[in-house]
Amino acid sequence: MLQMINAAFYALFILAMGYYFIINLQWYSYKLTRVLFHHTKIWWHFVYFLIPFALYMLVNNTSDYGFVVVIAYMGVLFQWYRGLDKPLVWTGRVKRFFAAMLLFAIFISVAFQDFTVIIPLFLAYFIGSDVLLEYITGNPLDHIGTLIKLLVFTLVFFFVFAWFREQVCIIVCPYGRLQGVLLDKQSIVVAYDHKRGENDNGRKKFRKNEDREEMGHGDCIDCNQCVVVCPTGIDIRNGTQLECVNCTACIDACDEIMDKVGFDPGLIRYASEDNITKGEEFKFNARIKAYSAVLTIMVAVLIALLFLRSDLEATILRLPGQNFTTTETSVSNVYTFKLINKTVKDLKNVEIKLVSHAGEIRIVGGTSFVPKGDLTEGTLFIDIDKKDLESSKEKLKIGIYADGELVETTSTSFTGPMKLSNN
Ligand code: SF4
Ligand code: SF4
To answer: What pLDDT is stored for residue 261 in this prediction?
Structure first.
C-alpha cells in the first residue's frame, strides 16, 4: 500500500517540478541558459527545485516516507504560485511538455516503483542473483557494458510505453495470429452478442419512451463506447479480430452503458459463437478434455524434471579420430569431458572414477574444481586391464564425485583389440 502511495506521489512530484520548470522557461522565452544564469531570482531554483529534489531523493531512498516531502513541497509551491503575477499560459508547447512529463512520470513510477521486485527478478534469472547483487552494490563503472545495455533496454521500453503502445499487440505480438488459428465456434472469447444487439433492424441510438423491441431494434444503442475504450482501436461489434488482446475493457464499458439505459448487462461478454447464435451453454467437450490432459501431463513432466534435475551434468566422449593404445597388460582410450555445475555453489575436490570396471582414470592437468554456474572441460585417459575386458567394445559407467560424494553418473564406450592377448 505504502509503495503505491509513494508511486503516486512520485509521479505528482515529477509533475510539480515540471510545472516550476516550464513556467520559468516560458517567462524567459524557452531559453534554458537565461533561466539558469540570468534569472532575476536565482535563489528560487534552490528553494523550489534543487533543495526539494535533493531532500526528496534522500528521504525516498532511505525510508518509505518520500510522500511526506512531496506534500510539503506541494504546499510551498502552492504559496509560490499564489504570489505570481504572471501565470502559466497553456500553449500547445506547454501542453505537449506536460503530456510528455505525464508519460514520463507514469513510466518512472510504474517501472521503478511498483516493479522494483519484478525487474530485479527478471535480471536475476538471466545473469544470476549473485552477479546482480554484485552489480547493485558495486561501482557502476565496473560493469559499464551491462549498464549501457540496461539503459538501452529502458529506452526501448519507454519508447514502447510512450509511443508504440498498442502497435506492439497488433504488429509485434504473435498472440493474435495464434488465436486466429486456434479458435473455433465453441471457443470462448470476448464477443458481441450480435443477435441481441442488432435484432431485426439493427442498432439504433437510445431515445426515451421508445419501444425498441417493437421497432425491431437491438439493445446496442450505438454509443461507440466499446470502440473508444478499446486499446487496439477495433470495433468488437464486427466480430472477433486478431487485434483483440482480450483486455475486456469493452465489456466493462458496455455494461456501464447498459446499466445507465436500464438494459441487462452482457451485450459484450465472454461467450462462444455457438452460445450467441444457438444459445448453447458451455460444455466441457472432448477437445477441452484433451487439451486439459495434455496440459496436466506437461506440467507434471516439468515438475518431475525440476525435481529430478541433477546438480552436475557430465559428458564424456571418446576423442574423435583416436584409436585405443595397448601395453602388455592394459588398454587405454582417450576422451574429452565436460562438467557443468548447475548449482550456486562451487564443487570442490571433484573426482571422476570408474564404477562399472576396475581401472584407472587419468585427467590431463588434473581437475578438482568446477565453479558455480560454470563448466570445466578437458581430456582424460581411461586404462583398463585386459583381463577385465570381455569384448572389444564395452560400455563403461563412470561416477563423478565431489568431496567424496557421488553427484552424477554417466556412461561412455571403451574399445579394445578384437582378440585380447590373454583371453
Ligand atoms: S477485449 Fe479489449 S482489445 Fe478486445 S475488443 Fe474489447 S477492448 Fe478491444
Ligand atoms: S458499448 Fe455496447 S451499446 Fe455502446 S456501441 Fe458498444 S456494444 Fe453498443
So the answer is: 94
